[in-house]
Amino acid sequence: MRNRFDEQLTRLNDELTTMGALCEEAISGCVKYLTEGGAAMRDAALEADRQIDQKERDIERLCMRLLLQQQPVATDLRVISSALKMISDMERIGDQATDITEIVENINADAPVSKTHITDMANATIKMVTDSVESFVKKDISLAKSVIGQDDTVDALFDKVRGELIEGVREGRDSAEALIDLLMIAKYFERIGDHAENIAEWVIYSITNKRPG
After folding, report:
1. What angle do CA 133, 138, 144 make, to 5 degrees?
2. pLDDT tens across 24-44, in order?
3. How far is CA 15 from CA 57, 58, 106, 143, in A?
4. Cα–Cα distance for residue pair 187/161, rounded to 1 Å
5. Less packed terminus of the chain by CB within 10 Å, N or C?
6. Model-wide pTM > 0.70
7. What is the CATH class of 2-208?
8. Under 8 Å between Cβ of 51 and 142
9. CA nearest 20: which of 45, 56, 46, 44?
């Protein structure tokens, strides 16, 4: 019975890893759509979000089977409950990547993306998502804690982007509407970082039975 349970826990890890990779694809897709344009990039980001939604449902069913068909001990219960919390945050990451994509569809082609640190924010949030899921699979508390620390980097980049955009408005060198759209995109990336931080905190809880903070 325990061997079967362990096999299903391994599958849970695999499914979470796949969902994390889809989150990376969604973020990368919306960033490429922002910086390069093209319907293919837009469609890739939207398709990744659709798959994230499906993966959330698949993992929820798996977790329910683990809870109902097996007899998990306290440690197992923490792992399963943490996984359920994590997929909720990952689903929100997919939604926010879609929100970014929808803003990009309406943004001016000459929006000053290259004059800001938005792509740096995107890369930082992708790393946070990747590391948070990996910390769960490897049960690596140090890596989870590093994700929490990385959120400060994303927040600092948001402040930098906001300053750059405000400066653009003051100088009148770019469309105010485009600058506001870019600020909204940066805010979504900041929120994605917050969700990755949440995932890392649930990882720590699953291992230690304590939430940071």
Report:
1. 55
2. 999 999 999 988 888 888 899
3. 11, 8, 34, 20
4. 10
5. C
6. yes
7. mainly alpha
8. no
9. 56
